[in-house]
Amino acid sequence: MTKPALFSWDVFCKIVDNHGDIGICWRLCRQLASEQGLSVRLFVDDWLAAKNIIPQLDPTIEQQSLAGVTVCAWPNDTTLPSATVLETLSCGLPQAYLEKMVAQQAHWINLEYLSAEDWVASFHGKPSPQAQLPITRHFFFPGFELNTGGLIREASLLAQSNALINNTSEQARFWQTLGCEQTIANDPTCLRISLFCYPQANIKNLLESLQRLDQAVTLFFPASLLNSADSLFPDFEKQDGQRLRKAKLSVQLLPFLSQTDYDRLLWSCDLNFVRGEDSWVRAIWAGQPFIWQPYLQNEGTHLKKMQAFLQRYTQHANTDVIDLLLGAHNTWSDAPGHDGLAIFNALLHMAELKTYAAQESDRLAQQPDLASKLLCFSENLKENKV
Fold first, then answer.
1. Which end of the chain has fewer beta carbons closer than 10 Å to its terminal beta carbon, N or C?
2. Which DSSP letter does residue 223 get?
3. Known catalytic residue: 208?
4. Cβ within 8 Å of residue 61, ≥6 positions away
5. Angle formed at CA 262 by CA 256 and CA 266, multiple of 5 degrees
């Protein structure tokens, strides 16, 4: 059997829910192709769901080249593996494909979920020999420290962010693409907040906190998550199909945004509420204050993950900033014993939180990014160094 080219990669993605998995995979594949010069195939099991993240995808074509990546339907029994196979989030690989991986001596890496917990560094890069086949699976853990796999970050990302933030004309054009130019023009000094959350978020407390502010506020909220405007935003006046209002608080409903436009939204807002993994990392790079909501898990496991992240994220902060961030996060995720005034207090100290968010974005950007570390790790596998 002919061995594949050394710089060919296969990436596997199963879309479970919420599009976070395909969002991560699509960002990473594009970066591996454009910045690392790899030949990348992305195998996806649900093309209709993937089309939300990859709008140009044609679900009727089983293989197509998009943004330098070959996007493919889930492999059949005749599909030959590439030199490096990246399984994402333990999605599983087809048995026939695995057997061909053995014959071709392909390298198998499993990209795991992002976590700031202490055990991550101990498991990062570790091999896992398989009982059924003579092949080894290697675990690759993203993370916030040098001894982990790093975070997804394109080479030009921070420069693009700074270019938008420092150019009022570009900002105006961005708001126009979202149909929000009139909302912004009516009160350019209003507090701009992006709101992307799971249903368990403490939205009631957030709205109460915002209504206490002596300031106009615009919430940018994805319409795809709006199961019921009446239940999420009670007593709000419906101004038109895309806006709700109550006193100084406005809600601007947004369509499903492209990844590029979502990044721009995070850069353009004063505060970002994010969830899961993909939007969480993008909020870090935005350099704006953010509040993260982890995916709900049994026995409060998600809260332990949140506390582990906050412990690492605030290690360079003063006591006041630590208290503000911990209090707001605990309230937003409705952690036991949370302070009902914590989000309001955070809103009163946006300048301090902004300074710290920008500082941490710059500090983390000094570390190698995930794609670069992945490539280095795969090269070491080829040279039998790990």
1. N
2. G
3. no
4. none
5. 135
Residue 84 CB coordination number (10 Å): 26
1-15, 16-30, 40-54, 252-266: least confident range:
1-15
The rounded distance, in Å, linking the Cα atoms of 244 and 136 is 54
Neighbouring residues of 122: CB distance < 8 A, sequence distance ≥ 6: none
CA–CA separation, 291 and 287 (whole Å): 12
Residues 6+ apart with CB under 8 A from 90: 110, 112
Q: Which domains are assigned to the chain?
A: 8-152+368-382 (3.40.50), 157-364 (3.40.50.2000)
Q: Which position among 21, 112, 154, 263 bears the catalytic label?
A: 21
Q: Are strands 39-44 and 69-73 parallel, antiparallel or unpaired?
A: parallel
| Tokens linked to 86 | 């990246």
> Does residue 1 carry a pLDDT above 50?
no
Give the model's pLDDT for residue 302. Answer: 95
Share of the chain above pLDDT 90, in %: 78
- For the chain, the distance separating the N- and C-terminal CA atoms, rounded to the nearest angstrom, is 25
The yes-or-no answer on residue 21 being catalytic is yes
Give the DSSP letter string of 224-249: GG-S-HHHHSTT-EEEETTEEEETTE
pTM of the model: 0.94
pLDDT at 320 over 80: yes
Active-site option among 112, 154, 277, 369 = 277
pLDDT classification of 31: cutoffs 50, 70, 90: very high
